[in-house]
């Protein structure tokens, strides 16, 4: 048995006998390692002589929102499985007993493949054709999610679509001001602009809410097919265009601020531009994209708020990852980027 864990690892050691009993595994042939990367919930690989699993648990420290609700994320995977959606890791078990590791957690299968982080993988050159196909494949998957059947599968029980857009604008604005550490005029102004420019039309669909390349498991460096979508903690039923807006916010292009390229490897040659993402989505959806600027602005604002929340946790000592110290610059870049789009009426 071996572990490679962050602080509070004594609690995580308890997972070995727990899983040995629940999954009929040999505890002497188990090891736990944390996956590096990511800015939110913590993910660990559990290696066993009968195959490997993945464990998800909330971050240490402050409980920020339902985004860290492990039971809910597990139920989402179960609902997607019931709906016949295959691009997910199979959910294995969920534990709400916080005495085991200090927080609720769940176990799912490990899907092997290539996950693109914020840098090109060493020794694995990716071609322009690879990124072109990946761009198309990823938007196809996003469209597939947005068009899932909701009632028979029970997915409609995961959210309240009525008034979703207004609640999101209000909620993310409140989160920003609750976590604010310094005055960033653009972020305050964007919050007000969003409240004043709510679209009148409402769309309903299943949405991922954090859809970007590093949440996709690909076939390999020569195979841009998507084997699985990961990190379902913010998934719900709401307006699909809010989901598209968040994806566009993460969809960095070559000319975007360098610090905003840390979230998505969408800027190398061959990838769709933001305009091409919008055009491709529109060609395969019956939704009206007339107000796509609003949804994009919201997406950029939300990315800024997420960065602000994590930065505050870092300042308070609840998050120790040194990467988090730079996140205030992400907040500022999001503010400037979104405010410039508002002033120029362009994406």
Question: Could you walk me through the main structural features you see in this protein, from its secondary elements to its overall organization?
Answer:
Residues 32-267 form the Aminoglycoside phosphotransferase domain. InterPro entries: ACAD10-like (IPR052898), ACAD10_11_N (IPR041726), Aminoglycoside_PTrfase (IPR002575), Kinase-like_dom_sf (IPR011009), Ser/Thr_kinase_AS (IPR008271). It comes from Rhodonellum psychrophilum GCM71 = DSM 17998. The chain folds into two domains: 2-14 and 29-109, Phosphorylase Kinase, domain 1; 128-344, Alpha-Beta Complex (Aminoglycoside 3'-phosphotransferase, Chain: A, domain 2), CATH 3.90.1200.10. A hairpin with a 7-residue loop joins β2 and β3. By secondary structure, the protein is α+β, with helices and mostly antiparallel strands. The strands form three sheets. A six-stranded mixed β-sheet has the order 1-2-3-4-6-5, with helices on one face. The protein has a two-stranded antiparallel sheet with strand order 7-10. It has a two-stranded antiparallel ribbon with strand order 8-9. Helix content is 39%, strand content 14%. The protein is built from ten helices and ten strands.
Secondary structure: elements and pairs:
Blueprint: E1 2-4, H1 9-12, H2 15-22, E2 31-34, E3 42-48, E4 51-57, H3 70-82, E5 91-95, E6 105-109, H4 128-146, H5 164-179, H6 185-196, E7 205-207, E8 216-220, E9 223-229, E10 236-238, H7 240-250, H8 274-283, H9 292-315, H10 327-344
Parallel strand pairs: 1-2
Antiparallel strand pairs: 2-3, 3-4, 4-6, 5-6, 7-10, 8-9
Protein name: Aminoglycoside phosphotransferase domain-containing protein
GO molecular function: protein kinase activity
InterPro entries: ACAD10-like, ACAD10_11_N, Aminoglycoside_PTrfase, Kinase-like_dom_sf, Ser/Thr_kinase_AS
């Amino acid at each position: 048995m071996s572990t490679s864990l962050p602080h509070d690892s004594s609690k995580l050691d308890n997972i070995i006998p727990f899983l040995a009993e629940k999954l009929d595994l040999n505890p002497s042939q188990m090891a736990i390692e944390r996956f590096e990367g990511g800015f939110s919930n913590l993910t660990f690989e559990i290696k066993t002589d009968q195959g490997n699993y993945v464990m998800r648990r909330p971050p240490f420290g402050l409980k920020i929102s339902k985004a860290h609700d492990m039971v809910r994320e597990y139920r989402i995977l179960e609902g997607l499985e019931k709906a016949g959606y295959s691009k997910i890791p199979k959910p294995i078990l969920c534990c709400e007993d916080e005495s085991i590791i200090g927080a609720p957690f769940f176990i799912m299968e490990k899907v092997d493949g290539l996950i693109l982080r914020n840098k090109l993988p060493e020794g694995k050159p990716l071609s322009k054709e690879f990124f072109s196909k990946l761009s198309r494949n990823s938007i196809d998957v996003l469209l597939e999610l947005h068009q899932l059947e909701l009632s028979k599968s029970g997915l409609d029980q995961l959210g309240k679509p009525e008034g979703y857009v207004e609640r999101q604008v209000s909620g993310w604005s409140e989160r920003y001001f609750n976590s604010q550490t310094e005055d960033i005029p653009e972020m305050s102004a964007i919050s007000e602009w969003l409240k004043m420019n709510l679209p009148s039309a409402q769309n309903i669909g299943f949405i991922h809410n954090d859809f970007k390349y590093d949440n996709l498991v690909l076939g390999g460096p020569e195979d841009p097919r998507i084997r699985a979508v990961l990190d379902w903690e913010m998934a719900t039923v709401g307006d699909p265009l809010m989901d598209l807006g968040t994806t566009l916010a993460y969809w960095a292009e070559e000319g975007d601020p360098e610090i905003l390229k840390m979230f998505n490897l969408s800027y190398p040659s061959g990838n769709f531009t933001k305009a091409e993402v919008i055009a491709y989505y529109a060609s395969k959806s019956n939704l009206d994209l007339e107000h796509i600027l609003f949804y994009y602005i919201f997406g950029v604002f939300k990315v800024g708020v997420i960065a602000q929340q994590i930065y505050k946790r870092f300042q308070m000592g609840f998050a120790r990852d040194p990467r988090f110290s730079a996140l205030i610059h992400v907040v500022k870049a999001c503010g400037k980027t979104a405010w410039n789009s508002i002033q120029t009426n362009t994406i």
